[in-house]
Amino acid sequence: MSQPTGLVRTGIGPIDRDHLHLWDLFQTLLEKDLREDEALAVLKELLAYTRYHFGREERLMQEIGLTGEPRQAHIHEHAIFVKRVENFLELLQNRAAPKTTGLQAMVEEIQKMHQLPTLPQLDPAKRVVAFLVDWILNHTSGMDVELANHTEAAKGPLANQDFSFLESDRPAAS
Ligand SMILES: [Fe+2]
Ligand SMILES: [Fe+2]
Question: Following DSSP, what letter does each residue of 26-93 receive, concatenated?
């Protein structure tokens, strides 16, 4: 698969492959006309894979001896993102309530916090997904690239490094 526009490569193989996989899951949610149960299954997989991926990055931080603010800030962003995906999942799961009030509120909150281009053609659920995609792009080009820079500073050129220690059992697809 070619590199999607806007998704920056870090130069760390396992991390970049994870980003592509997450990207695919997001595109499935955005572009395919999924039934609600299918969308929920994809979102659950996305949450599981996101946790796994963040775990790998945090393991890398440990491996290169990254401490202090750069480590704390990065881990903090991961935690906020996981919370958002969890909230989103929870909202979709409890949508037995009339309409999508919870989702609409989340969309409004997101739009207040971030000057996102308005996406009027998308329903509230897809707008939340669009926000999550936007987050991933920003996070990858910011903190993940910084992590790659720290890794290079600590251990030398990325191309010469063996990142196989990051390979461990992936979460089972749901
Ligand atoms: Fe990442
Ligand atoms: Fe990250």
Answer: HHHHHHS---HHHHHHHHHHHHHHHHHHHHHHHHHHHHTT--HHHHHHHHHHHHHHHHHHHHHHHHHH
Pick the CATH number of 13-150 from 3.30.70, 2.30.170, 1.20.120, 1.10.10: 1.20.120
CA of 74 to the centre of ligand 1 (A): 10
Expressed in angstroms and rounded, the spacing between residue 140 Cα and the centre of ligand 2 is 6
> What confidence tens digit (pLDDT) does each residue in 48-100 have?
999 999 999 999 999 999 999 999 999 999 999 999 899 888 888 876 554 55
Ligand closest in space to the Cα of 23: 1
Ligand closest to Cα of 150 equals 2
In the chain, domain spans: 13-150
pLDDT of residue 22: 95
